[in-house]
Design goal:
Helix content is 65%, strand content 0%. By secondary structure, it is an all-alpha fold. The protein folds into two domains: 70 residues, no CATH class; 46 residues, no CATH class. Helix 5 packs across helix 6. The protein is elongated, with a radius of gyration of 19 Å. The mean pLDDT is 87.
């Protein structure tokens, strides 16, 4: 899974952590996903630290935040990442081999990926 923090150069600040905590509490994931120690670590970090400077603390907080974000991710979003993108890539490659030049962009089209994912979800199971 691609890390949330690979896109930004610095670890999240106090406000970002508080927003993630609030979102996790509202979705019922704060107590379900995190251990007591992880919750305490996040709460202390939010209360005490304005900006994370320690690499050690940044690694710990990043792993906790990623754990929360993964748990809060919707089923469709997860399946789009795991099923939809590979399906779109395969269909795009096949269509390009058949001579369809516009198929090159299919794998990056989020609407097409979402369509394939929903079709996958609604596919009847073969017994």
């Amino acid at each position: 899974m691609e890390s949330l923090f690979t896109k930004i150069s610095s670890p999240p600040g106090k406000k970002e952590l508080a927003k993630i905590k609030l979102k996790a509490i509202r979705r019922g994931m704060w107590f379900k996903v995190l251990t007591r120690a992880e919750r305490a670590q996040m709460e202390l970090t939010i209360k005490i630290v304005k900006r994370i400077r320690s690499h050690f603390l940044a690694r710990i907080v990043t792993s906790i935040v990623e754990k929360l974000l993964e748990a809060m991710e919707s089923k469709v979003s997860r399946l789009m990442r795991e099923v939809g993108h590979p399906l779109a890539r395969n269909l795009s490659e096949t269509a390009q081999k058949w001579g369809n030049k516009s198929a090159k962009h299919w794998s990056q089209d989020s609407d097409f990926v979402q369509f394939l994912t929903i079709m996958y979800l609604n596919k009847p199971l073969m017994a």
